[in-house]
Amino acid sequence: MSASFNAKEQQTSVPDTGDAPASGINANTVVLGLLVLAVIYFLMPGGKKNKVPSGLNAGQGQRGAAPKAAAEDDDEDSWTAKLKSQDKKAAVFFGSQTGTAQEYALKWAKEARSKFGVSSLVLDPEQVEFNNLDRVPNSKAVVFVMASYGEGEPTDNAEAMMEFLLDEDVQFSHGGSRLDNLNYVIFGLGNTTYAKYNEVARKLDARLEELGANRIGGRGEGDEIAGSEKGYMEWKERMWSEFADRLELEAGAGADIADFSVTEIGRETDNNTYLGELSEHALKVSTGRAPARGIFDAKNPYPSPVIARELFALDGERNCVHLEFDISGTNISYSAGDHIAIWPSNPDMAVERFLSVLGLADKRDVIVDVKALDPTLAAVPFPNPSTYEAIFRNYLELSALASRQTLATLAQFAPTPQARAILERWGSDPEVYDREVDKARLRPAEALQLATGNDPSNPKDAAVWPIPLDRIISLLPRQKPRYYSISSSSKMYPTTVHVTAVVLKYQTPESKMHGDQPRWVYGMGSNFLQSVQENLRYGDLAGANTTIRLEGMPTQTPTYRLKGPRDAHVQGNVLRVPIHIRRSTFRLPANTKVPVIMIGPGTGVAPFRGFVQERVAMARSAKQRKGDAALADWGDMFLFYGCRREDEDFLYRDEWPQYAAELDGKLKIHTAFSRGPERKPDGSKIYVQDLIWNARDALVPAILHHGAFIYICGDAKSMAKEVERCLAQMLADYRGGTLEAEGYEELKNLKDKKRFQTDVWS
Ligand SMILES: Cc1cc2nc3c(=O)[nH]c(=O)nc-3n(C[C@H](O)[C@H](O)[C@H](O)COP(=O)(O)OP(=O)(O)OC[C@H]3O[C@@H](n4cnc5c(N)ncnc54)[C@H](O)[C@@H]3O)c2cc1C
Ligand SMILES: NC(=O)c1ccc[n+]([C@@H]2O[C@H](COP(=O)([O-])OP(=O)(O)OC[C@H]3O[C@@H](n4cnc5c(N)ncnc54)[C@H](OP(=O)(O)O)[C@@H]3O)[C@@H](O)[C@H]2O)c1
Ligand SMILES: Cc1cc2nc3c(=O)[nH]c(=O)nc-3n(C[C@H](O)[C@H](O)[C@H](O)COP(=O)(O)O)c2cc1C
């Protein structure tokens, strides 16, 4: 949890009467006490939710959760005062963990500017006071762009704001509990595969209504599965119309204003030029100005030595890799159940395509200095000065689907009227966009190439689009790390972090844009890991960007420049990849007597390899201390694992028997081979939930009478839901009740007690 505490704010909340309180404790003592509490709060272990740590503007300020004493005037540094003094029309708050909600907050603010010429403050709720929502004049609005996590919980940076607003005794700066004067706009970001879809935006909306605030437009909701942009586009028309009416704004009063200035400053790199380094420390290390040692975290990822091997490779279409990151000699630690964030670079093909489409191929090594023109709206999202090539290789996300709005914006730069018409159609007609862009999974530069009739299989075959770099920076998200469930235990492997990654490759449906043919799409991060594995295995690391073509592989397999900025990621035979660890709450019970039920088909088995290793390491030391019978009273570890075929994709098949032996039979593995010879009586596939159902006579008593912990990991779209239903059904049957009351309700109770935990993705 990235919580901070505003000691200064607490000081100002002490009434300055000049009298000592009746208790005899004077104001200074109170302040000191609060400071001590603040320090304790700061030092408390964080991370109560299963989500990625927020990397948003950390350390730029502090939040103030406590209501201030009533005062007539705004503190001139407060956001409400700035709204007034800087003549801003809106304050845009974002609750964001991995940046999407922040991107949408910026998108909203930029649209407000270009439509109506109004300026906004984009704010991280963690950095400001929000008890003064009652001070926002009726001529302005507050916008909330909120992502949901876990069981519909807020992101770290919105936690305090949500807690404050949902408090039934909420009190605002003037002492009241109403927000009758407040105009608000609300857009939620979520994913329909999670049970509590967009819960945060829904809860906040209901609460603001209850407090008397006045919503502008409807509540918007973006679903990652359907495409968050779709929800935004469908929502925004009515919202903008009501926004203009409520704030008495005139459409067309705005202009298309740049967010950044970009200055080319030559080709001579020096120690201040970022060539893909992710932090100032990384730049200092790669230019020999700092030792490799440092404090490594999300802001300064560690370029970790890595080794890798193939777990399976089937028909050149399905691959799974095992990687081990060496964290010895660093401040990095981890626990079984945590996640690792891996920072890949973009594939050569995507980098080349972008440089060609923008006409920058010959200027790839030109250094540019990028500055934010309105820092209250948009900060430069990457370190610079940097070269064109490094910006496209390391700092911008090139593999996300081309959004409708991006295409609509880029139409004005089309090199031909025909290309312009194509982009305008994609931008304005959702059905055409769905059919021609979404279904074909076109990335932005591919879309531009296709619109000018070029051949997307050749990244250099491109008509030049004269799009200024500042527009590209405004339109494309910052390159994000990819998260993986750690598949080792630090008790067994204290100096290495293991990852089990399936390589994402899929075929799109046939599309008009590709001559009515399907095409292969490659996941950016997982193919980077595959490339790491291949280079370590077959490659010449000295030239770690060489193209490797394996027998049977589709011809467009992406290649990557693995050598990193200034070749800092290759030294001799050692290859390095930037990583950081994110804490999670996905944890084994500390008490080894407690049984655990682990359900993880496919790569969902990753954290359970860590859990099993954890108990094996504990078993070894227990046996040393207590002798051979040390595990007699240990609880069972049930592992439900599924894959397609026993002899094809059974992950860590050779390791499990050894672990089971060391656990004296406490590890009970149930395997479902969905495409093996065995079938259910009706001929359908056997999945993990079928095995769970068959084992219910052992599992239900373990859950209800022996305090068993249940874990699900892997696919959120269908597996996790079906397994949950199966668990609910067997609990309901055992209790002789209904699926809802004795089934799902019981699971909810278990979740509340942290005895039912999920680590799922889609
Ligand atoms: C908490 C967490 C833990 C994870 N743990 C693991 C793990 O242990 N092992 C593991 O292998 N992965 C894990 N993942 C997934 C991993 O983070 C990446 O998402 C995955 O490797 C794909 O990344 P990529 O960069 O290769 O794909 P990207 O280039 O980011 O492409 C992914 C995009 O492709 C879309 N997509 C995927 N398949 C299709 C399809 N058939 N048709 C159309 N669109 C499609 C997805 O919806 C997504 O938008 C985890 C994810 C999370 C959030
Ligand atoms: N978003 C992403 O970028 C991304 C990346 C990687 C993985 N994933 C998701 O993560 C999941 C795990 O991937 P993986 O490759 O490791 O696994 P996988 O090999 O695709 O699946 C593992 C096993 O689960 C089975 N299965 C399929 N549907 C199921 C269901 N509804 N209930 C229970 N079991 C089911 C599969 O059977 P059959 O295949 O025979 O039906 C297979 O035997 C996949 O579902 C995938 O969607 C997403
Ligand atoms: C671990 C995890 C848990 C999530 N839980 C939920 C959830 O409970 N409800 C929901 O609607 N979306 C959920 N999501 C989807 C996120 O809200 C969605 O990805 C959103 O776009 C993230 O925004 P951000 O990048 O600003 O953090 C979850 C995503 C992850 C990775």
Describe what you observe in this structure.
It is a single chain. This protein is α/β, with parallel strands linked by helices and 762 residues long. Among the domains are: 1-46, no CATH class; 51-247, Rossmann fold; 596-761, Rossmann fold (3-Layer(aba) Sandwich), CATH 3.40.50. The chain is 32% helix and 17% strand. It contains 22 helices and 23 strands. The strands form 5 sheets. Strands 8, 9, 10, 13, 14, 17 and 18 form a 7-stranded antiparallel beta sheet that branches. Strands 1, 2, 3, 4, 5 and 6 form a 6-stranded parallel beta sheet that branches. Helix 9 (348-357) crosses helix 14, helix 19 packs parallel to helix 21 (719-735) and helix 21 (719-735) crosses helix 22. 46% of the residues are buried. Bound molecules: flavin-adenine dinucleotide, NADP nicotinamide-adenine-dinucleotide phosphate and flavin mononucleotide. NADP nicotinamide-adenine-dinucleotide phosphate is lined by residues 502, 504, 523, 601-604, 642-644, 649, 674-675, 685, 687-689, 714-715, 717-719, 722, 762. This is NADPH--cytochrome P450 reductase.
Name of the CATH homologous superfamily of one domain: Flavodoxin domain
The level-1 CATH class of one domain: Alpha Beta
Describe the global form.
Answer: globular
Low-confidence stretches: 1-50, 55-71, 548-554
* Helix content estimate: 25-40%
Question: From the alpha-carbon coordinates, what is the Rg to the nearest angstrom?
Answer: 28 Å
- Shape-level CATH architecture of one domain: 3-Layer(aba) Sandwich
The DSSP helix count reads: 22
Give the overall average pLDDT: 88
**Structural class of the secondary elements?**
alpha/beta
Protein name: NADPH--cytochrome P450 reductase
Subcellular location: Endoplasmic reticulum membrane; Mitochondrion outer membrane; Cell membrane
Function: This enzyme is required for electron transfer from NADP to cytochrome P450 in microsomes. It can also provide electron transfer to heme oxygenase and cytochrome B5. Involved in ergosterol biosynthesis.
GO biological process, one term: ergosterol biosynthetic process
